[in-house]
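Justification of resources, computational component.

The compute hours requested in this renewal are based largely on the per-chain cost of generating structure records like the one below. Each record pairs the submitted sequence with a full structure-token output. That output is archived, and it is also reused by downstream analysis tasks.
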Amino acid sequence: MIRTNINANFPHHLTNCVVADDTVYVADYTEQTRHQITKRGTELFISHPPKDIDCFTVSNPIRLDIDGIPFDRNSFVKPNGNIASQCECVIYPHCSKSCSWICFIELKYSNKSENNIKNLNKARLQLFKTQYYYKSKGVFGKTNPCYLLASLPMQSPPFANMTLSPAYLLAMKRKHNIIIRFLNSVRIINDRLLFV
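The structure output for this chain reads:
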């Protein structure tokens, strides 16, 4: 369902799609390679984490087939041709249904806890925008649990200076079926649930 709907609305996204039945590691090399001749962006690693950068972990102990799509500067474009804000990637079950989860991930590389509020609020906004692009085109619906995960890979959770109120988290889940968390890893329980 999700993959079919992406193909109908954003077929270019599937060009960089990886399918895996193992743990996936998400890393963003944008800042690290900003001043290098060869630029890199978001990359997904299967089974083994990269050794040269901290990353986000999607643990897959049940070996569910999942799709991972790293986003780049050409993934979403505004009507005027400018680049639209987006998160790092989306991951979802390869064979999804109307009750399957979809997960959007954004990484912010900072080891300064005093920047956490700014970084995580920016990450949250990027996550909301990206899920909106997909949801507004019918890629997934309200019956699909939507996980918005912001990560600070250079820090250990819980991240200092940043919390979301239980009332806000509950309202997002009840009204929109959105689960927001600030963490560096997630574990797949089944095609309907992630452990966050």
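The mean pLDDT is 96. The longest strand covers residues 102-107.
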